[in-house]
Specification:
Layout lengths: L2 H19 L13 H13 L3 H14 L4 H14 L2 H20 L1
Helix pairs in contact: 2-3, 2-4, 3-4, 4-5
Length: about 100
């Protein structure tokens, strides 16, 4: 094999490796990033004993919708499991107040 063919094969191989190592953009599924979905995931994680992961899910639900009562109920449960009854009570009261507001509308 002559030098030009080797050079061409080496260049082709390098290009192949370069393109094979690039990451493809991940399509964002906005229907997964909803408060309801995060609360459902949080409940599953809480039942599995993954408290920190459940906290992250409930917090994300609250970030997406500040007026979504189940997010506050989930946070209340997380703090209750951790033994922080005072913070748990605050989140539960917030959930109750939001529910009252929604009923009175």
């Amino acid at each position: 094999m002559n030098f030009e063919k080797r050079y061409f094969l080496l260049a082709a191989f390098c290009l192949f490796v370069l393109f094979a190592c690039t990451t493809m953009p991940i399509e964002q599924n906005t229907w997964l990033d909803t408060p309801k979905n995060h609360v459902n995931n949080g409940n599953i994680l809480l039942k599995a004993g993954k408290i920190d992961d459940a906290f992250r899910e409930f917090s994300r639900a609250k970030e997406l919708d500040e007026n979504y009562p189940p997010a506050y109920v989930g946070l209340s449960l997380v703090y209750g499991v951790k033994g922080d009854d005072e913070t748990s009570s605050v989140y539960m009261k917030k959930a109750i107040n939001l529910l009252k507001e929604q009923v009175n509308k």
